[in-house]
Design a protein that fits this description.
It contains 17 helices and 13 strands. It is α/β, with parallel strands linked by helices. The protein has 2 domains: 325 residues, TIM Barrel (Alpha-Beta Barrel); 112 residues, no CATH class.
Length: 452
């Protein structure tokens, strides 16, 4: 069934209920949190082949939820207390029944949003999505035109992404943008801020490229941890530039961490205006297109997947499975390396688990931290990562890296590293604690050569 036919099936309503939001209230002592934001991979089918795509989107999963199943899942999301459902992909608009699901989300009193590459988000599609009840459209724009088209392997894609913003705005949706910061896109942020403001973008999420899926096959895309100093120097100029043009900055979970820009980055994100630790399985929940329920939408594998919605139902998975409670129950004894001894350890808990796990094998030590890069720089040191094992071919599969600490002074650096931290055993092997160091010489899928 096509988009127009599905659009004609939408029930005629005078209005839709006021939607809840993703904001979470404070919990009473001992109270189990409930998810407020559900990030739902509606299909893995995609019309682009991005070199940084974590789930390696392209073809639909083998057994994606049917329309009827998706509608039942919407009911369970509402019953569990979710306030916002964010539809992602792949590319959600490639399934025409997304219109029926959006309408169901809105009729259940939840906010409906979508993250899209925008390549084929035509005005007709935008009109149909907004008529169904879609409220927010976030278009992925990864830098300037040359950077974006190279990263998305789609000539003309940057211009079509901006056309998608125009179509969504004209249809009546609030528009926003999201941008991966990596070695290709990082120099484009000031120019991009002006372009987004001119397009009428209201908010802008920025985050670092995660080394999983396709990005793990292209380690040259990744920022080196020491390059954060230059990135945040640029952000110090970009943030007021964007705000002066009416754009609210919304940092991703892996950007920041207690540097001098933390308050400016997160002042609209929470009352404390600082990073509060990973929220996977606390205020957020991930859904794969075949109904697998995850604590984090950006991670895969058994240690992050609570189970199949088809087999167990949503509430049982949320309340009873260990992967959904991992972040809630872990302690600072699960941290290791620099993060274990950090002043902010008990609050930050080593930052975004979806960054540290694909990098070093398990959460608990995260070199992509502004505070850490500044502290090391003050000691004349810096950190970089070297890939030592490649990723498997599946969605969200990742390789492994080792962390090299060295002098910033090139003359001193020539004598060799100050310290090397090898990757650690996964949570599939060691569920709790800081894991065990892996002998990189014993790894399969080895990488030959070293990065500079």
């Amino acid at each position: 069934m096509g988009f127009e036919e599905t659009r004609r099936r939408l029930p005629v309503v005078d209005s839709l209920p006021r939607s809840r939001t993703r904001w979470a209230r404070p919990l009473a002592p001992g109270e189990r949190p409930t998810p407020k934001l559900a990030v739902w991979e509606f299909t893995l089918a995609c019309d682009q082949k991005c070199v940084a795509c974590g789930p390696r989107a392209g073809r639909a999963r083998a057994d994606e939820l049917t329309t009827d199943e998706a509608l039942r899942l919407v009911d369970e999301l509402a019953e569990l207390g979710v306030g916002e459902v964010d539809l992602i992909g792949g590319e959600a608009y490639l399934r025409a029944d997304v219109l029926l699901v959006i309408r169901a989300i809105r009729q259940a009193g939840m906010k409906a949003s979508i993250v899209t590459g925008g390549l084929n988000l035509t005005r007709a599609r935008a009109d149909a999505l907004v008529e169904a009840g879609l409220q927010l459209v976030s278009v992925s724009i990864d830098g300037g035109e040359r950077s974006h088209d190279a990263l998305r392997r789609t000539p003309g894609g940057w211009r079509r992404a901006f056309a998608a913003l125009e179509h969504a705005k004209a249809a009546g949706a609030v528009i926003s943008a999201n941008t991966q910061i990596n070695a290709t896109s990082r120099h484009d942020l000031p120019e991009l801020a002006d372009r987004l403001a001119a397009a009428g973008v209201r908010s802008w999420q920025m985050f670092l490229t995660i080394p999983h899926g396709n990005a793990a096959d292209h380690p040259e895309l990744l920022l080196q941890p020491y390059e954060l100093l230059e990135v945040f120097a640029a952000l110090e100029r970009v943030i007021p530039q964007a705000r002066a043009r009416g754009i609210q900055i919304w940092p991703g979970n892996n950007l920041g961490y207690f540097g001098p820009l933390e308050h400016e980055l997160r002042r609209a994100q929470n009352q404390a205006a600082h990073y509060r630790g990973c929220q996977a399985g606390l205020t957020g929940i991930g859904i794969e297109a075949d109904g697998m329920i995850k604590s984090c939408p950006s991670l895969g594998g058994p240690s992050n997947t609570g189970g199949s919605w088809r087999e167990h139902g949503l509430r049982a998975i949320w309340e009873r499975t260990e992967p959904m409670r991992y972040v809630e129950e872990r302690t600072i004894d699960d941290l290791w390396g620099y993060c274990r001894e950090c002043y902010y350890a008990s609050t930050c808990m080593a930052g975004c688990t979806a960054t540290s796990e694909p990098l070093l094998g398990r959460p608990g030590n995260n070199p992509y931290c502004h505070h850490r890069a500044l502290e090391l720089d003050a000691m004349g040191l810096r950190e970089r990562v070297e890939q030592v094992a490649s990723a498997g071919p599946g969605p969200f599969e990742h390789g492994l890296f080792r962390l090299v600490r060295e002098h910033t002074d090139p003359a001193l650096r020539a004598a060799g590293p100050v310290q090397i931290d090898d990757p650690r055993t996964s949570r599939d092997v060691d569920p709790q604690g800081s894991g065990q160091s892996i002998d990189v010489a014993s790894l399969g899928r080895m990488i030959t050569g070293e990065s500079s």
